[in-house]
């Protein structure tokens, strides 16, 4: 109900007020001159429709301005109305962003921000849900994991319908502490987790050689530097005469689609990488050229692999260029665009849905691996540590060796 009211206010402020004001001023001038005001039937019906649809909103607006116990700042109403209009859509990935929120979003895609390093989304249950902690960040070191529900931040309850506010509360100056209340499946009660914020400087690509001749490349997310870093490191691995490539996309929450497409084009021969489709059925197809990395390939994924990482895994799977190992991915098949506004604010909105080369829409279902390998859990459902064995990686090494022989 609140979102609908905000949506109505937003529509009126943005679209209606200017036209009504112009008509009203014109009428006043005509009346002062003793003239009759004549409008066409279409114009009359247009404004009658406005009255029928938004008359209640105007009445409530006037009531608040007259009766609210404090003076109301018009700019606050405008900001709240616009934000409410976006919330009224009901899409958690479509949001109006204040100047600070927009700056923070741009900073994150550029690779540096202050916070705990965790990607969240509104869950189906309305709770703020962890997609995945970013590798080697305070959130990961504190033990946060995919599927965790964040119930409160510093004692203040949060919810998925106010995701931007929740994210803002978790961010802050490096060195300061934030306290999260976490509910996790299998636990009998929520647990408090205290995390010290850090300056998150994302190194999204790291690589090494394993088993003597297998290249291993880990991509933690896709920001503005990821594609160049990836190509540089894979080129270096090929100079070391690797005979196979393991691409680890586990707990990769996605990021910039352009970077994902650039990496896919680098890896794959001539094929469709992904195509998107909007509400009118218009399609945009991304294709790779004939150049490719001619090595056997295995891709590691899990339930924390989302969005752009699913696009890359889906292109490799449908193109039969590699074997997917791990567990079913997160399942986010929607594409967002980000638009800046002149006053420093901005917005992001879902513009289309994407499909893998074979025409599969994975939203809500994810990509199922060719070889399913569960990652083991430790005591009371806690994830295994780096010191523990990694059967998913072990299986990927086994599979890539069989391809190399």
TrEMBL record:
<dbReference type="InterPro" id="IPR036034">
    <property type="entry name" value="PDZ_sf"/>
</dbReference>
<comment type="similarity">
    <text>Belongs to the peptidase S41A family.</text>
</comment>
<dbReference type="InterPro" id="IPR001478">
    <property type="entry name" value="PDZ"/>
</dbReference>
<dbReference type="Pfam" id="PF22694">
    <property type="entry name" value="CtpB_N-like"/>
</dbReference>
<keyword id="KW-0720">Serine protease</keyword>
<dbReference type="InterPro" id="IPR055210">
    <property type="entry name" value="CtpA/B_N"/>
</dbReference>
<dbReference type="GO" id="GO:0007165">
    <property type="term" value="P:signal transduction"/>
</dbReference>
<dbReference type="InterPro" id="IPR004447">
    <property type="entry name" value="Peptidase_S41A"/>
</dbReference>
<keyword id="KW-0472">Membrane</keyword>
<protein>
    <submittedName>
        <fullName>Carboxyl-terminal protease</fullName>
        <ecNumber>3.4.21.102</ecNumber>
    </submittedName>
</protein>
<keyword id="KW-1133">Transmembrane helix</keyword>
<dbReference type="GO" id="GO:0006508">
    <property type="term" value="P:proteolysis"/>
</dbReference>
<dbReference type="InterPro" id="IPR041489">
    <property type="entry name" value="PDZ_6"/>
</dbReference>
<feature type="transmembrane region" description="Helical">
    <location>
        <begin position="7"/>
        <end position="31"/>
    </location>
</feature>
<dbReference type="InterPro" id="IPR029045">
    <property type="entry name" value="ClpP/crotonase-like_dom_sf"/>
</dbReference>
<dbReference type="Pfam" id="PF03572">
    <property type="entry name" value="Peptidase_S41"/>
</dbReference>
<feature type="domain" description="PDZ">
    <location>
        <begin position="105"/>
        <end position="171"/>
    </location>
</feature>
<dbReference type="Pfam" id="PF17820">
    <property type="entry name" value="PDZ_6"/>
</dbReference>
<dbReference type="GO" id="GO:0030288">
    <property type="term" value="C:outer membrane-bounded periplasmic space"/>
</dbReference>
<keyword id="KW-0812">Transmembrane</keyword>
<keyword id="KW-0645">Protease</keyword>
<dbReference type="GO" id="GO:0004252">
    <property type="term" value="F:serine-type endopeptidase activity"/>
</dbReference>
<keyword id="KW-0378">Hydrolase</keyword>
<dbReference type="InterPro" id="IPR005151">
    <property type="entry name" value="Tail-specific_protease"/>
</dbReference>
